[in-house]
Structure formats: C-alpha cells, structure tokens
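I have been asked to look over a protein record a colleague put together. This is what I was given:
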Amino acid sequence: MKVTIEDNALYIGDWFSVSFERTLRIPDDGKQYPLPPGLGRFPVCRVEDYAEQVPSRWRELGGFFIPMYQREALWLGFDGASWKPNAVQVGIGRINAVSGTPWVEGLSSSPQNYVVCPDQPWLDGINAGDGFIRQFVAMPLGKGYTVEAQLTGNERFGGIQIWVYEPKKGRFPDERPKEEYGLSADSLMLPTAALPEMVMGLGAGGKIEQKVYPDTYGIDAWDQQNSETVFVHIVNSEQYRELTGQQAPPPPIDASTYTEYGFPWFELYDEDKGDVASSKQLAQVKSVHDIDAGRAGGSVSERNEESLVIDPEKIEKITLDPHGRPRQGGSRQEEQ
C-alpha cells in the first residue's frame, strides 16, 4: 500500500487518510465534555527528507514526525471511501488505543482492536470508558506519564502507530459507484537501546463524549495479508526547529479562554451507532493530572484543569450523511 503526504495528512492506500489535529486540552475534572474544535493540522514531515538530522534509529524505521508541545492535546481525523472502507488500528507507544492490548499483528473482534473508516470519523483519545474517551496528551518519555509506561512498565517506543487493512477482494466495489460524490481522498519496533531525548509519547487527559463504533461488516471482511503500518514520531517544538529549520505552530489557546470568547464546541449526532466496550486496561490508566497530583502530594491547580461551564447554545450539532461521514458544513475546524 502506498503512503503519501498531502495537505499535512497521511494517505495510506487508495482511499484512507489520517490527519493529526491541533485542539484544546480538556480539563481533567471528572466531567465529560463535548467534542473540542480542530485548530489546524500539525505539520507532518517525512523522516527520509531529514535523514542527515534525525536519529539513526529513525532512519531504520522510516515513517514521519510531527511537533507537539509538552501537555498539548491532539485528535486523529479519519477519511475514506464509504463504498470501500478500511479497518484501522491506532497504537500509542505500541499500545492499542481501542483495546489496551499490546501492538501485535492482526485484527481481533473480541475485544475489537480496530475501527472502521468510515464510519469512525475521528479518535480523540484512549477507549477508557463507556461513551467517552480520555484525551491524547503529549508527554516526554522517561517520566512515567504515558499510557505505554503505565501498562508496560517501560517507555521504549513513544509516538503514534497507524495500521491500515484493505478489505478482501469482492466484498466491496473496486470502483466508486456513480451515485457516490464528495469523497476525500510488518509491525515497526524501535530497538531496546536508550531512545534519544527528543522522542515523546501520549498520556491520558480529560474525558470527551465520544463512541468507538463496532465493526458492522464483521472481521472476515478484512484482508489481514494486505496492510500497511506507519510510525509517527513526536518531537517537541525546539527539536522540530533543530531538525527542520522551521518554527512549530504556536501553542493553542487554552480551553478556558476559548470558552470565554464564546467559540463553538461540537456534538456528533450518532445515537443510532453502537459503542465498543471500554478497555479494562485503559480504564485503569491514570491521567497526566492525576499523576501530577500524586507526585505533588495533593491537588494540582492550573488554568488548564479548571472546570468549564459550556453554554448549550454554543454546542454545534454534527450529523452524519447516509455514507457515515460528517455532512458538509459539519466540520470541527475552528479558526483561532
């Protein structure tokens, strides 16, 4: 399966794409929040384009890298063809973000360890609860904050892994039906030696109302011999500048200020969709805020963790079209 970059999105195979969306960091206060906005895509760089600057281990792996600030949040935006969908696994530090199981080859239906794109339009975090996820938050390796550290006792990998499977031949059309319009277009493993300091991973943040949809086609629809894996490294803003000579995007607005200015939040109208059971492993993961509080010997007070009161009139409803994609105009993108 070919892998290309277009408009800071990764296109894997003929139809599937994933973008890495900048967003608000949700307060970790026990409340469940609506979908936060997209504040633009993270720039995506190809490792081979910076072969002289990147660590040698990256050259062995290939893949891509994005810049993030420490404690910055992101969500993954998916797109694909409704008439020929893909099964997609998401890993963070080689932990499956849906099932909480180790990052191994092959799809599983019990527990389901993948999403189907479409229908799944985005993933904002780990599948840690019924009807909600815990937000992806960037943290440096070696300090015990990441999901990887908490579930394995080690921080060896970091980054994001995306594994895309094509459907079996004959299960779906090979060409786009005439009535279909408006479409967007071996496991990687780091060596066990010490990682360069620039590598970051993802920890858990606050709760966002979001479902992980069950596979309605069945696991037998997917060709597990026809797949592609990409590794997306995460570096901080200073390291990104050293590698590329470019400045990382500025830090995003904080959630409190965003809400005070009356900008919109979002809710996906998907009451007819099921929800994959939460992962017992991921439900036990402590959030970045909880780890901070434990290490400080008590509560940690910061503006990013203040509870928000969101005016219901400021929550925009997004509906899905018959093909399972957000309807035109139903974007989470918001200009800063």
